[in-house]
Amino acid sequence: MEIELSNRAKTVLFTIITDFIRTGDPVGSRTISKRGALDVSPATIRNIMADLEEIGLLVQPHTSAGRVPTERAYRFYVDSLVKVSDLTTSEERMIEKNLNPPSREFKDVVRETSRVLSEMSRCVSMVSTPGFSETQFKYIDFVRLSENRILAILVSKTGMIYNKLIRVEEEFNQEKLAWMSRYLNDILSELTLKDVRRKIIQEMRSEKNLYDNILMNALKMSRNLFDAEIIDDELFIEGSTYIFDYPEFTEISRMKEIFKTFENKNNLIKLLDKVTRADGVKVYIGSETNIQTMRDCTLVASPYRKEGNILGSIGVIGPTRMDYAKVIPIVDFTAHLITRLLDEE
After folding, report:
1. How many CB atoms lie within 10 A of CB 169?
2. How many other C-beta atoms can be found within 10 angstroms of the C-beta atom of residue 306?
3. Is a pLDDT exceeding 80 seen at residue 97?
4. What is the tens place of the pLDDT at every residue in 213-271?
5. What pLDDT, in 10s, does the model give residues 101-121?
6. C-alpha span between 89 and 78 (Å, rounded)
């Protein structure tokens, strides 16, 4: 952010933002003077505050009140002023201790991560999962249930599982079904599920398969499976009520707006999708989210991985006056922790 400030102006701005984050009340020159950050008169501090207001970093909500930071001020604070430290060993252990999913199955890990992240940050937490069609194929299995019914089990490399009941005209014993599974696992290995569909069609057009009844049946069954509506992107949200710990969100109209944001997950999924195309912790403040109902909110988010591949994002939503110095390292550590858990799966 191209803003040049003197050391005095930075100190005043830093003091106002940190005090406003803590109290939510406008900050006056006397408060700054009492903090002892600057050895100057209240009149000098007022002049500095007026200069900061003129360049759009502060605003005075009432003529008799102190100043409050603007969205532009928070951006400057995050980029240039805030001191973000790693979590202490005891804080890291607390997160690890609390993050205890009932199993290492993908969704259990994601759901539990969302809960712990919300509790540790005292904010609304979100964890996005990849759309099933975007994940990498791991294996397919066919299980005979009866003469004309087969259970198809599809597993992605992320550990997501999709089951579908397939009705067939021809009867297959379990030995033939196991052979079909091996054949499909061999030709579909390492493909994304989106590419799997194309590969199946390509194989069905191959002359060598046209005259092999078992191969053709295997391809038909798998096409039946992959042509179905498969799991879409999911978003786990926890701790929605934490946002109402802040007085600025307790008005009925704002409460309704915020709840609509959480109910309409598409915008949030799109926002978190931007995070997956980046690296490390990202901070979106107010209008930077491009979501009107989040104009007074900040999203702090980071991608998480499995075996080096980005799967989704985790993040927290809070007011623009959230405690950035505390929240940013919590999100960063939790993203690394979920990555480690998924790699150990």
Report:
1. 6
2. 22
3. yes
4. 777 778 878 777 776 555 455 788 999 889 888 988 888 888 888 888 888 788 898 89
5. 777 777 788 888 899 999 999
6. 24
Closest by CA to 44, choosing from 55, 29, 57, is 29
Structure tokens at 215: 């191969």
Domains and CATH numbers, the chain: 7-81 (1.10.10.10), 89-130+233-343 (3.30.450.40), 133-226 (3.30.390.60)
Largest distance between two CA atoms of the chain: 93
Query: Rounded to an integer, what distance in angstroms lies between the CA atom of residue 345 and that of residue 330?
Result: 22
Predicted confidence (pLDDT) per residue in 74-95, tens digit: 999 999 999 888 899 999 999 9
> Which runs of E-coded beta strand occur in the chain?
58-59, 68-69, 124-129, 137-144, 149-156, 161-167, 234-238, 282-285, 297-306, 309-319
Tokens of 178: 């196991």
Q: Among all chains, which residue has been given the structure tokens 């790699």?
A: 343
